[in-house]
């Protein structure tokens, strides 16, 4: 309940005020609407809001509800992630949206300070302003947001110190401040009893970690000058220094002290010598191991890709059949085909499974094909081979050396070859010898989903409709494998290939895990692995459903599962993260910024998220069967695509907004 001067709309407000009885609230939906229009004028001129509409409730990103204490509807959520907002937010705008519970302006280009009057949004619970260019200090008024539960200000340029005023926000469960310009010490008396998620890494903070945060992981403080708690002890542990922005980072200080005035006992010296000897041994062993390991690798394998990167990520866009032109290319190709030749020199035959290809080829022509490395993973290396004369292009998977009995191998591959489905890359033939195992697929002109989602500008090219189609294609393919009584065993985004038109997708590498016999060091992408799986070679349909659930989460959130992309946030356990998000009713925050604005299909997004979370249940028997998953996806995706088709103009305007 706030007293405000009655400005231009004075008459209307006056009438309302006079009409109101006891719990009278001056701001109403009309005031919210005015504030939103001012908001648009300030930072979002491209927002497709219909200013002639009497109510703002239908505007993109605006949610209305009967707010507590209000006579009617109010704007309770403003969610415009990745909406191309740019410029400064003056005071007198956000502060007028007094019924707001959720405000998400993340992933935009908003600059300037956080307006002080945000403190007037007394109902605010969820505040996401990360990934903007906000600067200045956290304003004093901010700390009157006593109901605030989630605060994410990461990736801005917010300066000043972390004040003990935060103690006035007792409900705070998430406090993410990483990668800003915060300085000074953390208040020693900081005490947030409900804090679950906390991170201040990447700030110029110094001094000791407050006692209440001592149990947090060290990574929550990385890239700061803080000490104590999970970090190395502070230079002066007896009495924590008074918080001073001038105190130098502790670790350097401490090092110099130790080296100066420590006298080493005989025991310590003996320990150090022993340690050095052990370390030397370890290094020598590692070098020997590396040399041996290297020898077994082919030259082609030394391409820069890491195993964790998965397959097909380098997949080029187009197939060039007549590629004899470029000199460098030819050389590289020759060296690779030479590798394949020597390896398969016992001149046995390629075995075709599940029917002959359109253009027949033999082992001999395969071995002389020009080959190009598409990807390298823990199962082996994938090449695209253009057969002599350019008659055909195939994808060859050269399996990692594995001592698998011949009979078992042939039986398993024959079974895989019998699987024919529109959404599975067809396994066409194989070659088996003691030294060399090749799996040959028909070439499909498509790109790895992992590359599409996680490389710069990739995600923007996949709207929700495209992601939904990919999900549906994968679900169909995997359900087909399951119906045949088999399991995929290695579902991940780099094993999903998406066509350039983004209209369909193929699943590949199905069943290969079982072919890589025991004794191979498994560096499997862990983020997709179901919790019950200890030996990834022992596949199960339940574990597939889990991995598929993670894949769905990846499609929806745009986040890479743990360890699947080098340099990504390795700590992110995607299912766990999404569970937290959904529990806390900030579902909208889970979605990839590139699709979060597609309010038209929001319901379908949420349903797909729910399905993904069912698939990633901890207990295998609690997960739905793949056939049910596929059926639910058909329903969800069908509904989303119908909406998209009937409103394709709006979709175009969405992407236009985002690119501006
Ligand atoms: C915000 O509210 C104040 C007081 O009610 C009013 O004077 C001002 O015009 C409002 N601002 C906007 C942008 O609507
Ligand atoms: C909101 O309030 C209006 C009247 O004030 C009422 O007609 C409507 O049913 C309410 N809606 C909900 C969801 O409570
Ligand atoms: C934070 O900054 C304010 C002024 O900007 C200062 O008064 C206060 O002492 C600082 N607090 C800490 C803990 O550094
Ligand atoms: C904190 O953020 C940094 C940088 O984003 C990240 O590397 C680290 O894993 C995070 N730690 C926690 C505990 O969230």
TrEMBL record:
This is Protein kinase domain-containing protein. One of its GO terms (cellular component) is membrane. It is found in: Membrane. SUPFAM superfamilies: L domain-like (SSF52058), Protein kinase-like (PK-like) (SSF56112). The chain crosses the membrane at residues 266-293. InterPro entries: At_inactive_RLKs, Kinase-like_dom_sf, Leu-rich_rpt, LRR_dom_sf, LRR_N_plant-typ, Prot_kinase_dom. One of its GO terms (molecular function) is protein kinase activity. Residues 1-27 form the signal peptide. It holds the Pfam family LRR_8. The keyword Signal applies. Residues 239-251 have a biased composition (Pro residues). Residues 368-637 form the Protein kinase domain. PROSITE patterns: PROTEIN_KINASE_DOM (PS50011). Residues 233-259 are annotated as: Disordered. Keywords: ATP-binding, Leucine-rich repeat, Membrane, Nucleotide-binding, Repeat, Signal, Transmembrane, Transmembrane helix.
């Amino acid at each position: 309940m706030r007293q405000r001067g009655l400005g231009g709309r004075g008459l209307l407000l006056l009438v309302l005020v006079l009409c109101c009885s006891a719990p009278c609230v001056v701001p109403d939906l009309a005031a919210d609407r005015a504030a939103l229009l001012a908001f648009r004028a300030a930072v979002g001129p491209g927002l497709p809001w219909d200013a002639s509409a009497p109510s703002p409730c239908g505007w993109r990103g605006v949610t209305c509800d009967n707010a507590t204490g209000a006579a009617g509807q109010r704007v309770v959520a403003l969610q415009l992630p990745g909406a191309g907002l740019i410029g400064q937010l003056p005071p007198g705008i956000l502060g007028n949206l007094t019924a707001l519970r959720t405000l998400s302006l993340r992933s935009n280009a908003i600059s300037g300070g956080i307006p002080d009057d945000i403190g007037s949004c007394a109902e605010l619970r969820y505040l996401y302003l990360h990934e903007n260019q906000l600067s200045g200090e956290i304003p004093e008024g901010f700390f009157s947001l006593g109901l605030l539960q989630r605060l994410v200000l990461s990736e801005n340029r917010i300066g000043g110190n972390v004040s003990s005023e935060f103690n006035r926000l007792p409900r705070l469960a998430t406090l993410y401040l990483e990668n800003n310009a915060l300085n000074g010490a953390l208040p020693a008396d900081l005490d947030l009893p409900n804090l679950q998620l906390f991170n201040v890494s990447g700030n110029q903070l110094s001094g000791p970690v407050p006692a209440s945060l001592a149990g947090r992981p060290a990574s929550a403080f990385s890239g700061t000058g803080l000490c104590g708690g999970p970090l190395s002890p502070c230079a002066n542990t007896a009495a924590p220094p008074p918080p001073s922005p001038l105190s130098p980072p502790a670790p350097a200080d401490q090092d110099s002290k130790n080296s100066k005035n420590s006298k080493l006992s005989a025991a310590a010296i003996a320990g150090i010598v022993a340690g050095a000897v052990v370390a030397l041994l370890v290094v020598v062993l590692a070098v020997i191991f590396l040399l041996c390991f290297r020898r077994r690798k082919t030259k082609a394998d030394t391409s820069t890709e890491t195993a964790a990167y998965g397959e097909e990520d380098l997949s080029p866009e187009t197939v060039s059949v007549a590629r004899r032109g470029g000199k460098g290319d030819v050389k590289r190709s020759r060296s690779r085909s030479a590798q394949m030749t020597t390896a398969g020199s016992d001149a046995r035959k390629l075995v075709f499974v599940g029917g002959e290809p359109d253009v027949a080829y033999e082992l001999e022509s395969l071995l002389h094909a020009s080959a190009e490395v598409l990807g390298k993973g823990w199962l082996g290396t994938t090449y695209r081979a253009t057969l002599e004369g350019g008659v055909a292009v195939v994808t060859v998977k050269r399996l990692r050396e594995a001592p698998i009995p011949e009979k078992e191998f042939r039986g398993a591959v024959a079974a895989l070859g019998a699987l024919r489905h529109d959404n599975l890359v067809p396994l066409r033939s194989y070659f088996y010898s003691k030294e060399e195992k090749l799996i040959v697929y028909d070439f499909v002109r498509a790109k790895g989903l992992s590359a599409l989602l996680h490389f710069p500008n990739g995600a923007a090219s996949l709207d929700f409709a495209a992601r939904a189609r990919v999900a549906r294609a994968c679900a169909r393919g995997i359900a087909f494998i399951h119906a045949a009584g088999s399991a995929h065993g290695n579902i991940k985004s780099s094993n999903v290939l998406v066509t350039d038109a983004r209209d369909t997708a193929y699943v590949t590498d199905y069943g290969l895990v079982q072919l890589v016999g025991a004794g191979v060091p498994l560096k499997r992408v862990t983020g997709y692995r179901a919790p019950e799986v200890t030996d990834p070679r022992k596949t199960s349909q339940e574990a597939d459903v889990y991995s598929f659930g993670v894949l769905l989460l990846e499609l929806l959130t745009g986040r890479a599962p743990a360890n699947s992309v080098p340099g990504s946030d390795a700590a992110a356990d995607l299912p766990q993260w999404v569970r937290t998000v959904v529990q806390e009713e900030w579902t909208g925050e889970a979605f990839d910024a590139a699709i979060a604005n597609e309010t038209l299909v929001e319901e379908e997004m949420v349903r797909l998220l729910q399905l993904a979370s069912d698939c990633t249940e901890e207990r295998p028997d609690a997960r739905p069967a793949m056939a049910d998953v596929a059926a639910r996806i058909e329903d969800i995706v069908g509904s989303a695509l119908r909406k998209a088709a009937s409103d394709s103009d709006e979709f175009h305007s969405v992407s236009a907004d985002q690119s501006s």
